[in-house]
Write a structure and sequence with these properties.
about 40% helix, alpha+beta, 10 helices, about 250 residues, four-stranded mixed beta sheet, single chain
């Protein structure tokens, strides 16, 4: 990511933050302790378990990887429309491929500009290779435990905007939240993710349309992260994480 020139006021609001990961900076005017406390408070109000694996007795188990991917492909445009709506309400950003490199622009900045919107780098469906790796390494072949085949991310300049987005997702009548993993929690050991921090929300989109298409029980993943962490999550950074993940057999 290349960082756009900020105004004096914006620079004044930006401070460095402390973390277990070197190079990670504080985002916004809140201290790291205050930031994580605010986010943790919003997460606790959801009254949900903070883990990846979700046991849902009402959710039919999907045994076929092909069936799972067919559902994910059907939900892909629906989820993308949802994250656009949440980003518009909360000041969320998306990565945009510009001539001078990758930039992070608020969704509102791209409205009405089809060229800019065509340059947004949306998350793609999880690759088959990685899905099979997770099935073999972590899930004992249980296809229904793959909860991130269809996924999208929203990037935020401040912790307040990120916390507001959590509220918007929680209050969305079309959303059934299944699980949350809060890597911004003060209790989270960032060594497990090589210093990387974000919030994972696994959810279902339940509308008359998704019910008609048989997609209402498919679980997708939404990642919420702060801009300094998104900048660290470059292609090289991700490659280093993949190497770490493979070494641990995750």
């Amino acid at each position: 990511f290349s960082v756009r020139t900020k105004s004096t006021a914006e620079i004044g609001r930006t401070k460095s933050w402390s973390s277990r990961s070197k190079g990670v900076r504080r985002a916004g005017s809140l201290t790291f302790k205050h930031t994580t406390s605010r986010l943790w408070h919003n997460i606790k109000k959801l009254h949900l378990p903070h883990n990846h694996h979700v046991e849902d007795k009402d959710r039919p188990a999907v045994r076929s990887l092909d069936q799972l991917y067919a559902q994910a492909a059907g939900l892909f445009p629906i989820l993308r429309e949802k994250v656009q709506k949440w980003a518009a309400e909360c000041g969320g950003c998306f990565p945009v491929e510009m001539e001078n490199g990758m930039q992070c622009l608020r969704w509102e900045e791209t409205r009405g500009n089809q060229w800019l919107q065509s340059k947004i780098k949306w998350a793609s469906l999880k690759s088959y290779q990685r899905a099979i790796e997770k099935l073999v390494r972590s899930y004992d072949g249980r296809v229904e435990r793959l909860l991130d085949v269809c996924r999208q991310s929203i990037i935020f300049e401040t912790a307040n905007e990120l916390a507001h987005c959590i509220e918007q997702i929680k209050d969305d009548p079309d959303v059934a939240i299944c699980a949350v993993k809060n890597r911004l929690s003060p209790t989270y050991d960032a060594k497990d993710s090589v210093g990387y921090r974000d919030i994972h929300i696994n959810l279902r989109i339940v509308t008359s349309n998704t019910e008609h298409l048989g997609l209402d029980m498919h679980i997708v993943e939404v990642l919420l992260l702060l801009r300094p962490l998104a900048e660290i999550k470059s292609s090289q950074g991700h490659q280093r994480y993949v190497a770490f993940r493979n070494a641990r057999g995750l």
